[in-house]
Each structure stands twice: as C-alpha cells, then as structure tokens.
C-alpha cells in the first residue's frame, strides 16, 4: 500500500480511491494533483491520523469517508470542497490549526453527513454557522459524542470522569443548533449526554423531522423520549440502545404498540408507517400508567 501511495499522483485520471481497513497513517501531499478524484474512503483505517492540506485542491470530490480513523482534524479551508455530497467522520475540533464546524456552512449539496467529537465544541455559535437546516438535500445525519460509556448504574463517564451539569448544558446548546432540514430521512445520535434531547426533537409536532424514516439513538442520558414521534408520518424504524436515564415513555408509545398488536380494526393513527421498534439495554422505565421495569431487550416487530 505504501508503494502505491507514493506513485498515486501518476494516476491523473483516477476518480475512485478506496483504502478501507488498511494500516496507512496519512495520504501523500501529492494527492492534490489528482484533479478528477471524486471518491475517497478511509473507513476503518484506525492508524490514519493526517489529512494533507493538498486535499483542498480536489474540487471534484463528491464522497469523503473518515469513519473509524484517528484523525484529529481537517485543514482549514475545507469549505472550498463545495461539490461534496457525502462527508462521513468529520471531526468537530476547536483547535486553531483545524477547520471548525462553521466550514460546513458552504457545503450546500451534502446528502450524507456524519460529525464526530461534538463534545469538543465549546461555542454553540460555530454549530449555528454549520447551517444544517439550510442543506435542503441532506437526508442522512449522524451526530456523535465520544468516547463515552454508560455504566450499569445509569451514569455516563467521559474521558474517565463523570459528566458535570455544566457539560450537560453545553452539549444541549450545541445539539440545539444542529437542527436538520425537513427532508431528513435517517437520524443517528450516539453518546449524547444532555439531559434532554435537542429542542427540534422534543417539539410535540417534531416539524423538522416530518420526513424521517429511520431513527437510531445509542448511549444517551436523556430523560424522556419525544412525545411527537408517534405522529411522524413516514417513520418506519426506531432503535434506542442503552438509555438508562429515561424515566418516562409517553402514552403514545404504549397505545400504538397495544393497538398494533391487536386487530386491525383497533389500530390508531400513532406510528402510521412503523414496522419495527427496538428498545435495547434499558434499566428502568416509567410510562403513563405507572412505574414498570423494562426488559433488557424489547422488540416490537412486523406490526402489519
């Protein structure tokens, strides 16, 4: 692989480059010479740490995947890659040598976006400038804090320490400013340690998510699920994995489950398109009918 990278610039008409699951640590500076390159995937390259500044010369780039790498940041000027349609594994950094979330603002053609390390964001103003709500083509969004882990007693630790109330309030502000566009179909939130889910999820009407089809929530400390989820007209799949702090499940969840499990004549309007709901690894729960213990694995499948 090393020998290939050294001569990579000679492939002047190369459009597709996949180096997934290799042991490379960086891309050569000469990669900026491959002007027609449209696709780069480094998914699973755990030793990859350096993104060369010359990558900013790849004006035709459509797809860039940094998932499961160890990059610390992306060079400033990243906003020049305005042809990007898919950006995965973007590291949210505040260091002066790296670009911040606001450089996502001009990337108006994005359809898939994954942001990692949101716990590093100090000022919610930078998330506002990312302009996620203006990205009318965006259909898939992954938002992650980490590395975090949830303990069996329902506490969450961050870098070995318990999360403070101030940190919870800060991450809530950051996520509140990452409101997606109404066209979003796939939402994945992982490691979020705020007490409440973002405001754009907790609204009773959940207007920003009216096109949502798939929802994944993993390792979170929020205390309540959105009441308006059952009214989303296209929602097909929900998976909530390890959410030990949730104390209440709205009656719309329970009523919809019971009615979907009953005869079709008893079905109600809640969750009109839902086909599968997985609630995994819950320690405790509270519903409108009173306190109850949640099973370690509850799956409601094939409602229709």
UniProtKB/TrEMBL annotation:
Q: Which domain of life is it from?
A: Eukaryota
The UniProt keyword set, sorted, is: Repeat
Residues forming coiled coils = none
Q: Which Pfam families match?
A: LRR_14
Q: Which InterPro entries match?
A: LRR_dom_sf, LRR_R13L4/SHOC2-like
Q: Which residues form the Disease resistance R13L4/SHOC-2-like LRR domain?
A: 5-279
Q: Which PANTHER family match?
A: LEUCINE-RICH REPEAT-CONTAINING PROTEIN 57, NB-ARC DOMAIN-CONTAINING PROTEIN
Query: What's this protein's name?
Result: Disease resistance R13L4/SHOC-2-like LRR domain-containing protein
- What is the organism of origin for this protein? Aegilops tauschii subsp. strangulata (Goatgrass)
């Amino acid at each position: 692989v090393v020998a290939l990278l050294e001569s990579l610039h000679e492939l002047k008409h190369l459009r597709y480059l996949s180096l997934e699951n290799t042991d490379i640590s960086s891309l050569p500076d000469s990669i900026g010479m491959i002007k027609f390159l449209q696709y780069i995937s480094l998914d699973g390259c755990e030793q990859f740490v350096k993104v060369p500044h010359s990558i900013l010369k790849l004006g035709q780039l459509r797809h860039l995947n940094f998932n499961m790498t160890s990059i610390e940041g992306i060079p400033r000027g990243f906003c020049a890659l305005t042809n990007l349609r898919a950006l995965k594994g973007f590291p949210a950094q505040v260091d002066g040598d790296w670009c911040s979330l606001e450089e996502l603002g001009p990337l108006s053609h994005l359809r898939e976006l994954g942001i990692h390390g949101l716990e590093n964001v100090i000022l919610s103003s930078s998330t506002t400038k990312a302009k996620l709500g203006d990205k009318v083509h965006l259909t898939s969004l992954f938002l992650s804090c980490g590395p975090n882990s949830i303990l069996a007693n329902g506490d969450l630790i961050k870098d070995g320490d318990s999360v403070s109330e101030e940190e919870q309030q800060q991450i809530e502000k950051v996520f509140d400013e990452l409101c997606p566009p109404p066209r979003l179909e796939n939402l994945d939130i992982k490691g979020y340690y705020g007490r409440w889910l973002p405001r754009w999820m907790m609204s009773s009407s959940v207007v920003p998510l009216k096109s949502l089809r798939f929802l994944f929530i993993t390792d979170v400390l929020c205390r309540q699920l959105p009441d308006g989820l059952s009214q989303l007209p296209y929602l097909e799949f929900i998976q909530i994995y390890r959410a030990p702090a949730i104390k209440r499940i709205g009656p719309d969840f329970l009523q919809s489950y019971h009615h979907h499990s009953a005869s079709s004549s008893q079905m109600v309007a809640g969750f009109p398109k839902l086909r599968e709901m997985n609630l995994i690894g819950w320690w405790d729960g509270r519903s409108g009918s009173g306190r109850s213990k949640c099973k370690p694995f509850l799956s409601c499948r094939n409602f229709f």
